[in-house]
Amino acid sequence: MSEPSEKPKNPNPADQAEPPVTAGSAAPQPAERVTKGRLARDVALYSFARLLLVVVIAGIILGVAALVGVTIPLLVAAIFGVLIALPLSLLLFATLRRRVNEGIAAFDAQRRADQADLRAKLRGEDR
Question: Quick one: where's region Disordered (predicted)?
């Protein structure tokens, strides 16, 4: 059998993963920690912007239908609003979406690093 000192220090390579770097952005600074509140604010803002876009598009559909003299049910206008807003929001809210994605990636990297530190402390290693 092998001795405990021959074991690799960190058998899970995912714990050593560097935070992902996206094109056009720098790696997050270790001193700058992403908080749950900031991440929740960004996600809520992005979600609200997408919902607002759906409402605006559905309103435009209903308004144009009223001008033409056609009645369109609200549910049909809402469904078309969602279908049109999906690809349009990717273009219109690209910077907000990138900020949310980077925040999630940074928060996940922080969580993994904190978890690795805790495991090292539990094993009795100094980090």
Answer: 1-33
Distance CA 63, CA 25 (A): 41
Residue pointed to by tokens 């009645």: 71
pLDDT at 34: 76
CB 21 within 8 A of CB 125: no
Which pairs with CB-CB distance under 8 Å and at least 24 residues apart come from 111-116? 112/14, 112/15, 112/17, 115/15, 116/10, 116/15, 116/16
* pTM of the predicted model as reported, rounded to 2 decimal places: 0.63
Q: Which of 54, 94, 45 is nearest to 74 (CA)?
A: 54
